[in-house]
């Protein structure tokens, strides 16, 4: 494919073929997942399952790829389907525009998937997805909290057991301990402290008790680092 000639120049024809034959699931198409999905598509990943039950809100515009003034009220999945198809018309897409439960994730991950990206920002569905991926032995990378962070030089990719100074990672570890899971999958995280002034209590939002301030580039970098890990593992 001519549009992948620069990628082929870097990694070679055989690795481009590996990416084209791979199927990656990305759950969550917000500030992290949308950028991750696009980077995977631009690298030539040939099949993707994308999941997000939300629509674009005005507050998404400071950081989320699907969020523009004229896309407000549209589902994030529909916008990303159009965008990914515009990048690669031959990509195979499976799009789900509803919130998933544990059973939904279990059913999805019983089907062949080469990698799972967890970009969900709500705790319960996040843990459901991680559990389903581990139960089905699917390679997984999970994004921890990008909110409240400013310094991209602090971002790391480590096993979940080695994450620290991240409130979301702490809560995920605590939940997973109940299932006797303490390690075994990668996370993108930053130990940069979050100032209290960047956090407000939230009422009425699905699965959220707080809202954390964000800057444009941090969620995108989290998503791109997750994509880089997936791509590098797929072409090994």
UniProtKB/TrEMBL annotation:
<dbReference type="GO" id="GO:0061503">
    <property type="term" value="F:tRNA threonylcarbamoyladenosine dehydratase"/>
</dbReference>
<dbReference type="GO" id="GO:0061504">
    <property type="term" value="P:cyclic threonylcarbamoyladenosine biosynthetic process"/>
</dbReference>
<protein>
    <submittedName>
        <fullName>tRNA threonylcarbamoyladenosine dehydratase</fullName>
    </submittedName>
</protein>
<dbReference type="InterPro" id="IPR000594">
    <property type="entry name" value="ThiF_NAD_FAD-bd"/>
</dbReference>
<dbReference type="InterPro" id="IPR045886">
    <property type="entry name" value="ThiF/MoeB/HesA"/>
</dbReference>
<dbReference type="GO" id="GO:0008641">
    <property type="term" value="F:ubiquitin-like modifier activating enzyme activity"/>
</dbReference>
<dbReference type="Pfam" id="PF00899">
    <property type="entry name" value="ThiF"/>
</dbReference>
<dbReference type="InterPro" id="IPR035985">
    <property type="entry name" value="Ubiquitin-activating_enz"/>
</dbReference>
<feature type="domain" description="THIF-type NAD/FAD binding fold">
    <location>
        <begin position="10"/>
        <end position="234"/>
    </location>
</feature>
